[in-house]
């Protein structure tokens, strides 16, 4: 049976509406699906757990990895009610998800008052041109952790 | 007393070396400092806690927010051993940190075998052009969670 994209995405939209109406956080939800089975769900909990990284996608990725007992989610699709922000899209790449299906765009999120599009624009700039001051220091010592890493024969790469 | 950038960044580099040598994760560490006092520390724990989002910066941001009891870290500086990846830079914007000081660049991280630069390049592309398949569906229903949000007079914005 092929995965039913529309059905999973509609479930995520329902979950996001519930999340708002229950006062649990922002208007976002995500599902992680493997072989048409829901592995994990996540909703936005930023303001209720006091964690700015508790976006729906990150919450779902962390829950799915816990369930799998592994830090990668190859073979899985992420369904999310809105185009992932840069933080969540980065997490999606690190988790090695196979595919993303989303409903609203970053422009829709901006119209609802969220910073996703603003952060995409900031990331496009060179570090010195961003609104957030970023300074590089100690570049001559920066290699020390990487040297330790290369010398560690027991390292687990990710 | 002005904040001693070099001292805090060197502490982060030492912490990252220790993290590798103790077998706790990748060669990255971060400190969050407010008024020259360390609010929280974080190291990379991806492979030991099975969480692809457990980068040093995210771990430090989550710990600092827990300590503050709030989802924003205005007034704080983040010291990190390496230029933040897109996931962590996104988290830094959402956390409203004041400033970032880093040692290694994304190019140094790529040379050490990490995907940071690759993910920056992917984020620059339009969704249909990325290596990760991304598809938009149900755009006509995507407004439902945002409508619930706008109608919720008790919403906490972030």
Task: Explain what this protein looks like in three dimensions.
Two copies of one chain form a homodimer. Chain A has 158 residues and is an alpha+beta fold. The first copy, chain A, has seven helices and five strands; from the N terminus they run αββααβαβααβα. Chain A has helices spanning 5-21, 46-49, 56-68, 86-94, 106-111, 116-124, 143-150, and strands at 29-34, 37-43, 76-82, 99-104, 134-136. The first copy, chain A, has a four-stranded mixed β-sheet with strand order 2-1-3-4, sandwiched between helices. In chain A, helix 4 (86-94) links the parallel strand 3 (76-82) and strand 4 (99-104). The longest helix of chain A has 17 residues, at 5-21. The first copy, chain A, is globular. Chain A starts with a helix and ends in an 8-residue tail after the last helix. The mean pLDDT of chain A is 95.
Strand residue content of chain A: 15-25%
What is the SS-derived class of chain A? alpha+beta
Radius of gyration of chain A: 18 Å
Instruction: Work out the largest interface and the residue count of each chain.
Output: A-B, 93 and 93 residues
Low-confidence segments of chain A:
none
- How is the largest sheet of chain A built, in terms of strand order? 2-1-3-4
Order of helices and strands of chain A: HEEHHEHEHHEH
How is the main sheet of chain A built? 4 strands, mixed
Net shape of chain A: globular
Describe the oligomeric state of these chains in a short phrase. homodimer
Structure annotation, total helices of chain A? 7
Number of strands of chain A: 5
**Average of pLDDT of chain A:** 95
Helix content of chain A: 40-55%
């Amino acid at each position: 049976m092929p995965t039913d994209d529309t059905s999973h995405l509609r479930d995520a939209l329902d979950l996001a509406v519930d999340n708002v109406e229950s006062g649990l956080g922002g208007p976002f939800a995500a599902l992680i699906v493997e072989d048409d089975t829901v592995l994990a769900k996540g909703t936005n909990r930023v303001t209720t757990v006091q964690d700015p990284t508790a976006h729906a996608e990150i919450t779902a990725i962390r829950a799915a990895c816990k369930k799998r007992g592994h830090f990668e989610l190859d073979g899985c699709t992420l369904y999310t009610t809105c185009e992932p922000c840069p933080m969540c899209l980065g997490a999606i790449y690190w988790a090695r998800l196979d595919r993303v299906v989303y409903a609203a765009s970053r422009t829709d999120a901006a119209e609802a008052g969220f910073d996703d599009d603003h952060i995409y624009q900031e990331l496009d700039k060179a570090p010195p041109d961003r609104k957030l001051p970023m300074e590089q220091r100690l570049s001559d010592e920066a290699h020390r952790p990487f040297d330790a890493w290369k010398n560690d024969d027991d390292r687990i790469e990710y």
